[in-house]
Here is the input.
Amino acid sequence: MSANFYYGIEVFLNGLMAGVMYSLVALGFVLIFKASGIFNYAQGVMALFAALCLVGFQTGQIPFAHLINAIFGTQIHHFGWQMPALLAIICALLMMILFAFIVERYVLKHLVNQEPIILFMATIGLAYFMEGFGDLMWGSDIKKLDVGLPQGGNVWLEEKTASLGGEDFYGFYLDNLDIWATILAAILVTSLVLFSQYTKTGRALRAVADDHQAALSVGISLRTIWVIVWSIAGFVALVAGIMWGSKSGVQFSLSLIALKALPVLMLGGFTSIPGAIVGGLIIGVGEKMFEFLIGAPFLGGATENWFAYMLALLFLVFRPQGLFGEKIIERV
Amino acid sequence: MKLSKIAAAFVATTMVASPVLADLVFPSLSYRTGPYGANGIPFADGYADYFTLVNERDGGIGGVKTKVIECETGYNTEKGVECYESTKGEGSLVYQPLSTGMTYQLIPKVTADGIPMHTMGYGRTSAANGKVFSNVFNYPANYWNGASVAINHILAENGGDIKGKKIGLVYHNSAYGKEPIRTLEELAKKHGYDLSLLAVDHPGQEQKSQWLQIRREKPDYVLMWGWGVMNQVAIQEAANIRYPMENFIGIWWSGSENDVIPAGAAANGYKALNMHAVGNDFPVFGDIQKYVVDAGKAAGAGDQVGTVLYNRGLYAAMLAVEAAKTAQEIHGTKDITAVMMRDGMEALDMNAAKMAGLGMAGFGPEFKVTCENHGGPGLGSVTQWDAAAKKWTQISDFGPSDMDVIGALIMEDSAAFAAENNIAERCN
Here is the structure.
């Protein structure tokens, strides 16, 4: 086989890995949409906020230091300690749970029975508020995120496969971080499925997802469920923030990763956890293979963004509810 | 007693009769928020701090205090135009929009309004031709100079012969990112290297395809025209595929601390171009500390002083102040207008003695602006990142760019602009 054939396989594998990264973001959208019918515009900002909290705790940054310094003329920045990564992750998770409580208490509670577009608008407001609040709390400088995940190409795989495609082939390249993301995504999805299938709370979540009114009539607290769902979405956002933040540093642009999740949602459906995964994989592989075979050689490259949306639109033509979404039949 | 009363009356009369000099207004179209806020903040801080220094240390420019009006653009072109419209009536002397997109929108507006615009190292490159662009200045260097300085650096590393070498350009898929392509293509014809182009879509968080392509094609050098998150991801991806960092060269907008710190030790050896000095080893920083930071008058938290983008803002402000001084000298008045400021910019002479007097000897290249040449000499330096010391080091002097190639391109592009807009050439 020629080197190009193996490079094609390499692109395919990297597409799968990229797809997993997109799925991590899409999962948060799906969880909230399933349970409350809200398209959470703030999901990308939640990933940014979670990652900001993680780095802040880990590096011992004093929250609102700039504000305190500006008001009181002090010169404080850090507590002077370094928190172990795992403890910082737990603290960041607690922050996201607190955030879920606040969102439920001050936003969602007041919007029960409102039109979905109103709830969507509320999440837009929430996103802008969180962007500013995150900046105020932790500063807007770009922060290095290091929780001990390995980065760089997997040398073992590269060396073992280097002899496959002749001297022009340098072995398969896979990023260690992407491999870890895949493992974590697999654990995450399995845990979510087990949680929703085999726990009482999980069953309550599914009941709320199926029918709010029916769930309320059997004594399920909608408000508690919303807090749980937003907390889980916060956890997923934290995982996505760690993975994407490890690549680019923690910065405002992290909130834009939501853009990568939209075609995944269009393709996989807004209500299916497996759909988010499969959709992510299809988008990841599709855009990378298109760029490799057609985009870079014939179209000048940079085709991935628009191709992902085109692919998703193509699926929508045939399955408007997405690959795994629930078909909605309304009788009039 | 009588005498003192007369003297007091005289002083009071004189004070009332003399015209009150208004502040010299320098608008700052800044972006402290949004995806590029991390880069916009140090520039805006440096820009504002220098004017504060001039007020506190020198009592203003020629005795007239300066005032910086900051308007947040969020790096959004429409907001930038709004900022221009809302501040131009305040007596604004010069605009520095810090965005190529805004620059293109503002060129016809500033020309019609008679206000000068300085786009240092960005914007429309052919604006260097003062015969066509009366109100736009892009000294001391532009994108095309940057492309040529990078190629000159590669030539110097290879004994002047790069025939057959492979050079890749990773660029932001926007008007900004595409700026160097024509120059690099022309230089490829001249020097015989193979150029491959790798576009990255905004914002640039996902670049796996581009770096897999680089890994396959193994270019000898990679140049980068990036901004924001694209830079950080590119440097991390380059490190991931173990691309030799010393052969990876970014334009000056891809060469700040923000771009390399997220990649940690892996970014060691990465190079970037610059049109001014790096670090804070200049007397002016002592003054900044004394008159601005310690006095509690810094624009930000004071933690950006000496960073690459802070220095760029400082340098841009210093050039504006020197142009204002020149305008005061030319027109014999302290209270200058935007039209006078334009004249000052067109007659700006940044010589070594002047730079030394400002406590900034060697901070930027020496240059003279003329009616014909608004772009300066097109000199640039190469800097390199030391990850252990967490600092940039200038590894070359401000070297020349290939003006034979660039000059012709500037003439061609500006002539086309003049024809489209029915502009008669000036400076005849």
